[in-house]
Specification:
The chain contains eleven helices and six strands. The protein is α/β, with parallel strands linked by helices. A six-stranded parallel β-sheet has the order 3-2-1-4-5-6, sandwiched between helices. Helix 1 crosses helix 4 and helix 3 crosses helix 4. It is globular.
């Protein structure tokens, strides 16, 4: 897709703007345990970032769809106990505000939806800087499929050649490669830099504060019309 003269900064949320990946790991592990499945937490961690139904199938393989849905629901119930205290990562709100102030269209691209997405946005505390968001409710296929990123670009009328996506998982990077957007990885979700680069990250930072400090270099600075 080739759009107009705007620029879009697309962001995953969990592990990228909020320090929530390990909460998801614990909740998925417990939901799986309640259904009689013993899955190592390391395997769960590497699966975080997939849509919930795909995450369960990724960990357990094809199986009983009703059981998979029960596990998905149980994860949501467990995770909801944290909604009032989800932590934003250092610099997350400042990064979004800086980009919005520099005339970037800021779009959240997440597998979260409903009350969970509302809680994550409250945690970040920068709604005034966010142009739009796309969630699990808006697409048929989640990351690593490019549909969520394509949907985000459509929402703001910006072409892939004028967009940067920031994420913390290999699923994020693979989706961004397929969507044809520039790619920034962050280590705040716990995935090693080598894995992110192998999946397509063009630059890797510790977290949002370091992305903010590095806006003058890397993918953000290389975009047409980027001036700082």
């Amino acid at each position: 897709m080739t759009g107009g003269e705007g620029r879009a900064a697309l962001f995953d949320i969990d592990g990228t703007l909020t320090d929530t990946n390990h909460l998801h790991v614990v909740c998925w592990w417990e939901a799986l345990r309640q259904s009689g499945h013993r899955v190592p937490m390391g395997a769960v961690h590497r699966a975080v970032g997939l849509p919930g139904d795909e995450l369960v199938a990724h960990l357990l393989g094809p199986g009983d769809e009703e059981e998979h849905e029960r596990i998905h629901t149980a994860h949501g119930v467990l995770y909801a106990t944290y909604h009032d205290r989800l932590p934003a990562l250092d610099g997350a709100a400042d990064l979004l505000r800086r980009l919005a102030g520099d005339s970037w269209e800021v779009v959240l691209v997440t597998s979260a939806s409903g009350a969970q997405l509302d809680a994550l946005r409250r945690a970040i505390g920068a709604d005034e800087a966010i142009t739009a968001w796309t969630s699990a409710d808006d697409v048929e296929r989640g990351k690593p499929h490019p549909e969520p990123l394509n949907q985000a670009l459509d929402l703001v009328g910006v072409g892939a050649d004028r967009a940067v996506f920031v994420g913390d998982t290999v699923w994020d990077m693979r989706a961004a490669v397929r969507a044809g957007v520039s790619r920034v990885g962050v280590l705040s979700g716990g995935i090693p830099a080598g894995d992110l680069r192998a999946a397509g990250a063009e630059a890797v930072y510790e977290g949002p504060r370091d992305v903010l400090a590095g806006l003058g270099t890397g993918p953000f600075a290389r975009l047409p019309g980027a001036g700082g």
